[in-house]
Design goal:
Elements: E1 11-19, H1 21-32, H2 47-59, E2 67-75, E3 83-97, E4 100-110, E5 116-126
Antiparallel strand pairs: 1-3, 2-5, 3-4, 4-5
Amino acid sequence: MKLSLLKPGEILLDSEIFLSEDILNKYIESINGNNTNLQTQFSPKLFPTAIIFGEIFKLFELPEGTIHLSQKTTNSMPILQNSKIHTIAKITKNTMRGGNRILTLKINIYDQSKNSYCESIANLLVQKEK
C-alpha cells in the first residue's frame, strides 16, 4: 500500500522490536564504516527510529523521488542495547501543496512498562505522483 494514500490518524506500525546487537552493529557500520566498537551500554539516539523507519518502509511503499525534509527527535531516557521496545507510528498530516504531498509521521517509542523513551516527528515530501 502507498504511504501517501493514508489519512491522518492511521497507524503505520504498532509492534515490539528487539534492538539486537547484530542489528546495532550493522547500523553503526553503515554510519561509521568498519568501526562497530560502541563504548556505552546505550543505543545511539537515532538508531531506534532508523530501525522503525525500515520496518515502516517494508510495509508501505513510497514513490521514487520522495525526500526526507526534516526530523525532530526528543529523547526522554536512553535505550539500552539489546532491549525490546514498543513502538507506535502513525500519520499525523497528509496535505497537498503545489502539486506535491507532505506527509508527517509521528513515532513514539516505549519500554516494556510503557514508559516513554522517545518521540520522533518526520516530514516527507512526495513529489508529484505519476
